[in-house]
Amino acid sequence: MFTVRIEPGGHEQHDVKSVAAILERGGVGILPTDTVYGIVASALDRKAVSRLLEIKGRAPDKPLPIHVSSAGEADTLAFADGPPQDALMDAFWPGPLTLVMERRPGVDIPLQPAGTLGLRVPDHRFCLEVLRRAGCLVVPSANRTGKPPPVEPAGISVEIMDRVDFFVDGGRCPGGVPSTVVDVTDGLRVLREGAIPADEITRVAGGGAPGD
User: Fold this and answer.
1) What sign results for the dihedral spanned by CA atoms 45, 191, 167, 5?
2) Which pLDDT score, from 0 to 100, does residue 212 have?
3) What angle is formed at CA 102 by the lines to CA 99 and CA 106, rounded to 5 degrees?
């Protein structure tokens, strides 16, 4: 397994290239993000995503969060160019906000429910550089389903660590709380309140009511 330690002050570009190359070859690994550690694979690689689901113990019919490198990239995958998503992306991207948006016609993201995509731009320099090289990634938290999401390397189970192709050790994740998930496909609905409070979401979006 390829393992690298990155420091808060910076990292080596060859480490970014090495991680991106593994992902481009269909690999699965673990990355630190601005919220928690994630288990990652190319969102466009059906075999890699299937393997990720098996490692995580997650049902294939449940949607996976997808990380992208920019709002512009998000708009190539989903309709990310109107209210309230414009206001929310301007305020919270990069950052701990996942937006569930209507998928653009013809966009083929395997093993994701038809019609929508949950997209996020992480506020983490190493992650963003990997995303720019490897393309969009599925990034659920690096825990077995039902277990707490890990915020530091010690919280990642051996059961997962032994089955991945790379591990990027970034120390403790700065946020420590999963992203807030907001559905903007039909109005505004907070599906999960995480790092960003629901009332802050509704304030920035200019209305709507938080939901479960």
Assistant:
1) positive
2) 36
3) 130
In a domain, 212, yes or no: no
Confidence of residue 12 (pLDDT cuts 50, 70, 90): confident
Contact 29, 165 (CB under 8 A): yes
CATH code of 136's domain: 3.90.870.10
Amino acid at 117: L
Residue 205 lies in a domain: no
46 lies in which domain range? Answer: 2-82+97-175
* Burial environment of residue 163 by CB neighbours within 10 A (0 to 12, 13 to 18, 19 or more): middle
Mean pLDDT of the chain: 93
| pTM to 2 decimal places | 0.93
Q: Is 181 among the domain residues?
A: no
Output the CA–CA distances (angstroms, integers) from residue 52 to 30, 57, 143, 189, in the order listed: 10, 8, 11, 28
CA atoms of 194 and 180, how far apart (whole Å)? 4
Residue 183: what pLDDT?
96
Q: Is residue 89 part of a domain?
A: no
Residue 11: the pLDDT is 83
**pLDDT digits 0-9 by tens, 18-77:** 999 999 999 999 999 999 999 999 999 999 999 999 999 998 888 999 999 999 999 999
Count of domains in the chain? 1
Q: Which two tokens stand for residue 106?
A: 């013809």
List C-alpha distances in Å: 155 to 84, 122, 188.
Answer: 36, 20, 34
